[in-house]
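Progress note, project year one: complex with molybdenum atom.
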Amino acid sequence: MFYGLPKEKNNDRVPPNQRVTTDFPVLHYGNVPEYKDLTNWTFKIFGLVEVEKTLSFDQMLSLPMAQATNDIHCVTGWSKFDNLWEGIPVEEVVKLVKIKPEVKYVMLHAEEGWSTNMPLADFMTPGNMFAFKHNGEALTPEHGYPLRFVLSHLYFWKSAKWIRGIEFMENDRPGFWEKNGYHMYGNPWKEERYAWD
Ligand SMILES: Nc1nc2c(c(=O)[nH]1)N[C@H]1C(S)=C(S)[C@@H](COP(=O)(O)O)O[C@H]1N2
Ligand SMILES: [Mo]
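Model obtained:
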């Protein structure tokens, strides 16, 4: 399966006050995790689900794969077009559990306790992926190896690198950058950069 860019973005693809780059800058808080092997790596699906689930790396690799493109918009002002991501479409992972009807938000959890929040509907938008590859290459350690989420339509800080789990929630709660002054939603087209925007 292949997901193209939303049509409206082809007209004006640069959100306000962003500049386009062909580099791929590295941005994060904390350390780049080092993995000797992935035998103890787990992916947890928890919170408001009927039965919580833990998957091994091999189990993740056995899920259906797809490709999707997105334009990255980083809150620090750079945009990078036409990124090709390869991995597990979000719906293939969510299918593994039964979400309770009251769920409205999601928290993504990454290494070192890092997290980011988003509405369920944005999380579930087709084209979002749990990505193993970027532009045909395995993710490098600094870009999220072995697995990162790609939330294609909001500022890139919500695209959790080194992701280890999904928590389903009824009420919104700020993640790491959201607690530190970033916007709870982060729409680049409306310049929702900081909490006070
Ligand atoms: N686990 C984790 N994921 C993270 C971050 C982080 O600090 N920790 N930073 C976010 C921010 S602020 C940005 S801009 C992007 C940067 O991704 P890149 O380094 O691949 O360009 O990752 C996001 N994902
Ligand atoms: Mo960022």
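The two ends are 37 Å apart (CA to CA).
The mean pLDDT is 95.
No further modelling is planned for this target in the current period.
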